[in-house]
Amino acid sequence: MTQQAPDGGMAAYQPAHFQLEMRGPIAVVTLNRPEKKNPLTFESYAELRDYFRALRDAEDVQGVVVRGAGGNFCSGGDVFEIIEPLTKRDMKGLLQFTRMTGDLVLAIRNCRQPVIAAVEGVCAGAGAMIALASDLRLGAPDAKTAFLFARVGLAGCDMGACAMLPRVIGQGRASELLFSGRSMSADEGERWGFFNRLVDKDRLTEEAIALARSLAEGPNFAHMMTKTMLNREWDMSLEAAIEAEAQAQAICMQTQDFTRAFEAFAAKQKPVFEGD
User: Fold this and answer.
1) What are the residues facing 138 on neighbouring strands?
2) Within 10 A of 271 (CB to CB), how many other CB atoms are there?
3) Residue 239 scores a pLDDT above 80
4) How do residues 172-201 score in pLDDT, each as one tens digit?
5) pLDDT, averaged across the chain
6) 256: which of 42, 83, 158, 233 is 20 to 30 A away, CA to CA?
7) pTM of the predicted model, to two decimals?
8) CA-based diameter of the chain, in Å?
């Protein structure tokens, strides 16, 4: 179980199964098993899930960048530490695992901070789902993203892929990737809308941190509300969505940041947001 720092924040948290560096208010999460292209284990899945869950109430973290060490993002679940043990589990044990992996996606989507994936090299399986669950994705030109579940005899409907991927790149393109398990090139990913933009490899992490910092310097209460509504409106009618947004925006209009923005505009100055 991830433990919060004594002050209720998460900046001082020291993970056991990934690296964590604070760059101001931005948490840089690095998957760090470069010798195997950063695969996940049962333990790293669980710790990542718990970490993102705890971020929901963390006031000292205003943005998250997820990256991989050694030139690759993440190769998915470790073949010998996850896949092989799963072949020996009964249905109860398998469902326990698949629910845990899905809970990681939910934790990323439900934390209030914007999450940015900095993707280079191999981004496969569960790694592709971590990238997909992020709010924004920057890709290096060598990024190869594969939802390769079909290649190991599994359905493409894993960790929310069938719900989320069509919304990002379209139903037909998502169907192709999920049925075939083939890699999506960086150029395809940008053209199809998976990547917000491509960035040279040597600038990828710094660009992702800069993007996270620019969001953190904005009205982060309002950003939290935007993320919340992006999640909630997936299954709403247009009428329900418009009403929900009316209520959400009225709440934002009660914040000091809204007043600060008006006063700065009137004074022809740049607003300084404080998140309240």
Assistant:
1) 118, 197
2) 18
3) yes
4) 999 999 999 999 999 999 999 999 999 999
5) 92
6) 233
7) 0.93
8) 67
